[in-house]
Amino acid sequence: MQNSDSIQAVKSLDRYRSDIRSKIALLSPVLLMALAMLTAVGSLSYSRGFWLGMQGWGVFNWYVDYGSGFIKRGLIGTITSPFLSGHTPAFVETFVSTQHLVLCSLLGIGLIWMASRTLIVDVRSAFLVWLCFATSQFLPTLAYNSGYLDIHLFVLLFLATIMWKNGKFLALGTIGLVGPFLHEMFVFLWMQILVLSLARARHGLKPPEIIAALAPFASVLLIISFHSQNAVALELAEVPVDAEMRAVLFRQQFGQTTVAAIAQMIKMFREDAVNVISAAAYFLLPTFAIFVLSWQRWRASGPDWPWRFVTLTLATLSPALVLLVAWDLSRFLVMTTFCGVLAFWALDRGKKT
Length: 353
Hints:
Order of helices and strands: HHHHHHHHHHHHHHHHH
Number of helices: 17
Strand content: under 5%
Number of domains: 1
Number of strands: 0
Radius of gyration: 22 Å
Distance between the termini: 31 Å
Helix content: over 70%
Largest sheet: none
Structural class: mainly alpha
């Protein structure tokens, strides 16, 4: 009986593989054309924000490290200090802009691969989803923010999504532990992974997945507990910025508490409500287009599609909770489009990697 079941399972697997190969062979020209168009549109979109430089408010990221003691956001400086220590600001700027372009290119290649997995299932609907992403403000904003650590966090989230879908919980937890040491904002991006895991909880969660899903929060607690403002003062003294910016960095970027940040954000939302509403309407438009297209794609895919759609919505929008503690509307709103296509890929009924 067991042998019969095993043979039947093997035959089913062979039929599934054959079906996938047939689809690839049948759609190959269309698939390649769709990927080429997405690559071209995405590259053009990225070029709108591309420049060879470094954002002024991102300079400090590359000069502060753990040399004077443990501080938040000191990991990237610690990693790169062997390459940048003793060099001129011009050299540091060239290094930063180069690594930014390289990482953006690698992420772009990864996203094209991700798109191909959904295009295999249904070219037209998936193409429109990814076209919304490629034409959104995410790519030009990412290109423009050279020097910020956004690209590093996005690469980690991209990898984490792959690990989540394939059940690689040790790797997922490792990514979750490391991310907040680059920047605490990672815990808000991680809300996507947390939502995806909670959605899967209705089928039962394995202990390794629970531990992995909570890993970034453990890191944040460690960072808050051991962060030293005295070490920050020593580190900022080496950053090539004026005294006024150095004071703002010390007070707001490193010294502000979560409660104070939330209070400040509430005040800013009240004083600038019209700008907040108009910015949300503009920058979230591609994100909501992805929701509509996903709904159209999934509604005939099985009885659980409403559950997947709700999960997609929450996983996409939850990272925007970062606006509770930080004010950078365009930068944080457009990242929902990126989170949207990651969640779309994770929940879509395509072939596992």
